[in-house]
Amino acid sequence: MSSTNRSEARKTHKSDYYVTPVREIENFLNELQKEENQILIKNFLDPCAGGLIGKDKMSYPEAIKNAVYDRYGGKPRVETIDIRLDSLANIKGNYLKMDCKDKYDVIITNPPFNISLDIIKKALNDVKDNGYVIMLLRLNYFGSKSRKKFWEEYGLPKYTFVHHKRMSFTDDGKTDSIEYAHFVWEKGYRSNFTNLRVI
Ligand SMILES: C[S@@+](CC[C@H](N)C(=O)[O-])C[C@H]1O[C@@H](n2cnc3c(N)ncnc32)[C@H](O)[C@@H]1O
User: Fold this and answer.
1) Is the N end or the C end of the chain the one with fewer CB atoms within 10 Å?
2) DSSP string computed for 139-190
């Protein structure tokens, strides 16, 4: 993370913890459903689930609950993992060292930037065939020497949903100068192109 604002957030939060706005996730999930209409009745894992005891809810489980339980009455199961003991996740530990293979239809999170590629690769390995891996990443994640090999090996995500409004990850509502997008991979779908939509 290069932004000043998120650097400020990191001073007070360990393990690269900051909070994704639930509304933005709900907005994204609603748009994704227009393309993949069964996605919200599935078995989810958030492997970097966040939350802070006594302060913040876990953003992705909360958004999934709002987008699914409230509007459609479905009951997806959302398992949660986080490395911090003060997180609200059900399971405390390092996702990169856990055996989660073939248990989940959808693995979704906002990963810590410094280990994001390892998280994505593990999630693509762990998710069931034809399942989805969804990560909130900087839009410029596409452009880097270090990830070129990854795109060549795995192809591009099936969808890229670019958030037109800059997100704030801090309580004061300040935004940084970086655009974010939800990157959506479907395991087994490979393309050298991505379907990009601005939401
Ligand atoms: C960028 S925050 C996102 C939190 C939450 N998903 C959200 O979007 O609001 C990343 C989270 O990953 C957790 N984390 C860092 N390294 C991890 C690891 N190796 N395994 C599991 N969780 C990890 C941090 O404690 C933090 O809560």
Assistant:
1) C
2) GGGGS-HHHHHHHHHH---SEEEE-SSPP--STT----S--EEEEEEETT--
**Digit-coded pLDDT (tens) for 125-181:** 999 999 999 999 999 999 989 899 999 999 999 999 999 998 888 878 788 788 999
User: What's the predicted TM-score (pTM) here?
Assistant: 0.92
The residue extents of the domains of the chain are 4-198
The residue whose CA is least distant from atom 2 of ligand 1 is 17
Distance 198 CA to ligand 1 centre (A): 25
Distance CA 92, CA 17 (A): 14
C-alpha to C-alpha distance for 127 and 133, rounded to whole angstroms:
7
